[in-house]
Amino acid sequence: TTVQTHDIRKRFLDHFIRAGHTEVPSASLILDDPNLMFVNAGMVPFKPYFLGQQTPPYSRATSVQKCVRTLDIDEVGVTTRHNTFFQMAGNFSFGDYFKREAITFAWTLLTNSVEDGGYGIDPQKLWPTVYLDDDEAEAIWRDEIGVPAERIQRRGMKDNYWSMGVPGPCGPCSEIFYDRGPEYGKEGGPEADEDRYIEIWNLVFMQNERGEGGGKDNYEILGPLPKQNIDTGMGIERVACLLQGVDNVYETDLLKPIIDLASELTGRGYGRGAHDDDVRFRVIADHARTAALLICDGVLPGNDGRGYVLRRLLRRVVRSVRLLTSASEAAGVTPRAASEPTMGALIGRVIDMMAPSYPELEERREQIVSTAVGEETSFSKTLAAGSKLFTDAATATKAAERSTISGDDAFTLHDTYGFPIDLTLEMAAEAGLTVDQHGFTALMAEQKSRAKADATARKTGHTDLSVYRDLLDRGPTEFTGFGELVSEARVL
Ligand code: ATP
Ligand code: MG
Ligand code: MG
Ligand code: MG
Fold first, then answer.
1. Pocket lining: 81 vs ligand 1, CB cutoff 6 Å
2. Which of 60, 212, 324, 349 is most buried, most CB within 10 Å of its CB?
3. Is the CB of 235 under 6 A from ligand 1?
4. Rounded distance, CA 425 to CA 112, Å?
5. pLDDT digits (tens, 9 = 90+) for 275-291
6. What local confidence, expressed as pLDDT, does residue 1 receive?
7. Where are the beta strands (DSSP E) in 211-345?
């Protein structure tokens, strides 16, 4: 029998409780932090302690934190290891233990036998990395843990140096990767191939103080901190994927049942060699789960900020279901999803799977389901309305003996009917047409700069406070603006 995700979570907490850590429950995905759209790492709720703004009531803590990373949205279903919602297990030391203990704790949990409370991973499959000049961490891995020197790689600032992006604590990291074997890629350690060597755990050694300066790696390091801290994050879904011997995180025990249900409803098979179908199934499972967890923590579908992310996720589920359904119909099968809504069933299955670890999902089951179903209903209307305009545009294009749907039409579909551009692209392809994407992008950009000018006008006029609220909702840290805006049409 393989280890279930709930058990992986519990083993983690038990391991660190035995080692004197206080268990801290997961915080909500929504914290009152203007810099952050969603909690995206286990350390976020502990920030005030690391920044020295508050004194922690314990010197060692452990948690399994709900995380959402919208920046990974395009990776979902395409790589084997990225969820938009995932659970980050962590152990934290506030001025207590440092590198030696952090490395030893991680190693023993990963490699101890299942009988001894560990995960029973073969030590030969594990590859640690250290920061370029971190001889101390390297020596611990090599001389105390006994990892052969050739399996320890040194990496630069981008991968192995951490800060919060603002003046405050910073320091080198040591990450642990698992070798999935030659069928997953080329040899040579994580430096050579991060699909074959899967990152499972990041150990952050907060030992220095960061000064001013921009970005992830363009800042001054002022000197050592008076007190050193530890922050670690292990991905529960990734460990589940490896221990359960499945190909990707979407096929682990808490997500595969959602894929199975989607397969039943849409009449398409999963894992039968149709790559596009499989990606859609993985998107459905991942996004339905993230949506349920977000609604549970108080997010409602909306047109900006967090609400917009939720809307995008739910719409992507609806669209993926529809595309799978059409594929079935094209093959002569009429599945249930052709005549019934599916969101309620999918979200219900998510709650069944996740409630044992997050009982609040059960408590709010009805509200979560009805919110998601409401979005499904309204988006289905949008799709129905837009489809008529699309057909008219396609017919007109062909009648004029052209093969390209104009940027104007694509923009109207998007702007007036909320019609996602990738749907326009796909339907155009089905009709043997292309879309003037440059024209579309130009019109989108024009609209954005108009909106921005409006917002600035309102801001300087000090009349409309909603502008400030809007900016706060977005927050600079995750809503990095450009990337998100550029990808929003594609992602919808
Ligand atoms: P990657 O390089 O694979 O994108 P990362 O370096 O961005 O991962 P960290 O920020 O170091 O990840 O987060 C700590 C741990 O959380 C990772 O080692 C991984 O196990 C897990 N993790 C990070 N992002 C995801 C995700 N999108 N889905 C599932 N697990 C994740
Ligand atoms: Mg990442
Ligand atoms: Mg990484
Ligand atoms: Mg990392």
1. yes
2. 324
3. yes
4. 51
5. 999 999 999 999 999 99
6. 62
7. 221-235
Grade residue 460 by pLDDT with cuts at 50, 70 and 90. low
Strand ranges for 211-315 from DSSP E = 221-235
Closest residue (by CA) to atom 31 of ligand 1? 235
Contact in structure between 402 and 472 (CB atoms under 8 Å):
no
pLDDT single digits (tens) 297-308? 999 999 889 998
Contact yes or no for 75/83 (Cβ under 8 A): no
The DSSP secondary structure of 141-202, one letter per residue, reads: IIIII---GGG-EEE-HHHHEEE-SSSEEEEEEEEEEEE--GGGS-SS-TTT-TTTEEEEEE
> What 3-state DSSP class applies to 308?
helix
Percent of the chain with pLDDT over 90: 77
Q: Please, which contacts does 408-416 make with residues 24 or more away whose CB atoms are closer than 8 Å? A: 408/439, 408/443, 410/435, 410/436, 410/437, 410/439, 410/440, 411/439, 411/440, 411/443, 411/444, 411/447, 413/386, 413/389, 414/440, 414/444, 414/489, 415/447, 416/389
- In the predicted model, what is the mean pLDDT of the chain? 90
Looking at all shown ligands, the one closest to residue 200's CA atom is: 1
Q: Which residues contact 103 (CB under 8 A, 6 or more apart)?
A: 128, 137, 140, 141, 144, 145, 174, 203
Count the residues in the chain. 492
Residue bearing the CA closest to ligand 1, atom 19: 235
Q: 360-395, pLDDT tens digit by residue?
A: 999 999 999 999 999 999 999 988 888 889 989 999
Give the span between the Cα atoms of 163 and 329, in whole angstroms: 51
305 backbone φψ class: left, alpha, beta (φ>0; ψ -120 to 50): left
Radius of gyration, CA atoms only, the chain: 24
Backbone angles phi, psi at 261, to 5 degrees: -65, -45
Cα separations (Å) of 469 from 184, 464, 465?
Answer: 46, 10, 7
- For a pocket test of ligand 1, which of 43, 76, 81, 121 has the largest count of ligand atoms closer than 8 A to its C-beta? 81
Tokens (6 digits) for 490? 């594609």
Which listed ligand is nearest to 88 at the C-alpha? 1
Decide if 286 contacts 255 (C-beta within 8 A). yes
* Domain range annotation of the chain: 5-243, 254-491
Pocket test for ligand 1, best of 8, 238, 287 (most atoms within 8 A of CB): 238
CB distance 196 to 180 below 8 Å: yes
Residue range 5-243, CATH number: 3.30.930.10
pLDDT for residue 435? 97
Output the CA 36–ligand 4 centroid distance in Å.
Answer: 18
Q: Which residue has the tokens 């058990």?
A: 7
